[in-house]
Amino acid sequence: MSTATERVVRAVDVPLSEINRVANGIEDLYNDRVDIILVRGALPRETLAAAGERLDRNDENPGWDRPNQKMPVEDIQILGTDTLATPTYRAPRGGSLDAYLEGTLRHREEAARVFGPTFNARAEVERVLNGFGGGRPVQLPRSSDGRDYGPFSIRRLVDGTQIGPHFDYHYPLDLYSELRPMVDTRTLISWVFTVRKPDAGGELVVYNLTRDTPNPPMLPDGFQFDMPAVERQFQSTFFPTDVGDLFILASGRCMHRVNRIAGPKARVTMGGFLALTTDWQRALYWS
Ligand SMILES: O=C(O)CCC(=O)C(=O)O
What is the mean pLDDT of residues 61-81? Predict the structure, then answer.
């Protein structure tokens, strides 16, 4: 149990050359020893910057899906699937497992091709994530009928948009029916690479408010956080990132949001989730 006064957001921030300092990062996040790990320059900056520039054009549409279009301030653009493994305004309970697996299969190529033929994004993501497993393999799950889960999604937030405060504790969604029994559901971890950095805004903001903080300030509807009260009673830390940087966050435990983007340059990220299996022998990643 945590209170506003005693808990702080604990971050470890390392350059790629010191990634061995966070080699057991996934376990540390699960054990509540750290809340967020940042690795600077985790993927080649030039490759990601070139992809970010291509993705941030308004005269070409690589296939963006807009699951939050109904809520303009949260109108995130997605490449790589049309059925996220999270709630959206279009599908507040997520899709079915079948819709998720089909969506990711249909849209996978769009996301992979933005990096060009010499950069295998799935392999690169998997290689980097394996650096945090403490020797455990970090693998993409496969459904009982043999279909792969989606390895990552690409997300674009343009001027005036944001990701509001939330926890990523998505296991209750229907599409987790096969993953839920396989993984340790004490937390869920988000991993996010920055592909394009906006001129202003777009920082990850993490609060010292956790999913087990008793009586968090809520609006009278009982569903939404009373953010002015949260801001008054809790501390928040901003984590700016550059192109190529990675953060891995105990997003099932810590309230977080993405600060609103300002200016013509979008924020583009590539990310997903991961979790340890119930026996802690492996970790699984998906988006
Ligand atoms: O930066 C992103 O793409 C998503 C950040 C976030 O809210 C998350 O990973 O849970």
Answer: 94
Ligand 1 atom nearest to CA at 191: 9
CATH number of the domain at 11-286, please? 2.60.120.620
Mean pLDDT of 43-71: 95
Give the distance (Å) from ligand 1 centre to CA of residue 58.
Answer: 23
Please give the Cα distance from 275 to 229 (Å, whole number). Answer: 31
> Which residue, among 77, 152, 68, 147, has the nearest Cα to 109 in the 3D structure?
152
Tokens found for residue 180? 């839920």
Buried b (16+ CB within 10 A) or exposed e, 95-127: bebebbbbbbeebbebbbebbeeebebbebbbe
Ligand 1 binding pocket mutation candidate from 84, 204, 267 (most atoms within 8 A of CB)? 204
The band of 158, judged by pLDDT with boundaries at 50, 70 and 90, is very high
Residue 155 Cα: closest atom of ligand 1: 3
Helix (H) or strand (E) run with residue 113 in it: helix 97-113
Q: Which of 161, 163, 256, 286, when mutated, tests ligand 1's pocket best, judged by the most ligand atoms within 8 Å of its CB?
A: 163
Using an 8 Å Cβ cutoff, are 238 and 35 in contact?
Answer: no
Against a cut of 0.85, is the pTM above it?
A: yes
Instruction: Point out the ligand 1 atom lying closest to the alpha carbon of residue 251.
Output: 10
pLDDT tens for residues 90-112?
Answer: 989 899 999 999 999 999 888 88
